[in-house]
Amino acid sequence: MSDVARKVFPMENVLALVVGKEDADIKELVGYLAGRSIGCCCCAKALAPMATGWLASLYPAFINMEWDATTPWDDFVAKTKTAAGDSVSVPPMTPVLQARVAKVLDAIADVQATLEAQKAEIATLTARVEELEPFEGKASDLEKKCTQLEAKVKTMTTDMGGLRKELVPFQGKIAVDQQGLEAIIKDAIKSNMKGLVVGGVAGAVAGAAAAEAAPEEAANDGGPAADFGFGASGSDGDGFGF
């Protein structure tokens, strides 16, 4: 591999990548090896094992290199520089490895985009909750009232069902009774009319008879009848009328 396709990095950067130092900035080194710009430390750490494997394939001395946290970092770097030099010239990964790294970076980017969208949604919901919080008590009261109204409606529905059952035996009978009443009333009117007609005629006849009898009674009221008293022959012809 030609020297043109290589880049020199300080030994402490390479060591930080190889031993997995937590607070080290390895974005530039990993991005160069992967052939892509890396903007976050989490992406660099995700690609660190692949980048370390690539460096170890170039420099086998990095394979078993470890750093004991009890040893000061500066002392560890100084000791390594004494043995291997102040810097390291490294080439980028092969196109095949870079393609694999690209898939990992794309997956990480998708996850990050999802997380950012979820964060934005959570922030919106949080703001909405804070906005609606003053109305929470009112909503609770309305919910209670709605529950009470539903209970009343159920009771009224039950009562109406009972009333309907009670009215079932009477359905259609009211119209029949009305017709019967009308027939009774008509019969009574006819009967009364007949009574009035018969009574009127009988009264008229009786009145006429009384009128004819009245003169005779009036004549007899002045004295005895013509054949009464003296001059009348009795059964024995004595003339006393007895």
Overview of the molecule:
It is a single chain. This protein has helices spanning 11-19, 27-34, 41-58, 73-84, 95-132, 136-167, 173-220; strands at residues 7-10, 87-90. 68% of the residues lie in helices and 3% in strands. The N and C termini lie far apart (191 Å). The model has no long low-confidence stretch (mean pLDDT 76). Strands 1-2 form a two-stranded antiparallel sheet. The longest helix is centred in the last third of the chain and has 48 residues, at 173-220.
Structural class: mainly alpha
The H/E string reads EHHHHEHHH
**Termini, distance in Å?**
191 Å
Let me know the average pLDDT.
Answer: 76
Approximate helicity band:
55-70%
Strand content: under 5%
Unreliable parts: none
Short description:
With 242 residues, this protein is mostly helical. Helix content is 68%, strand content 3%.
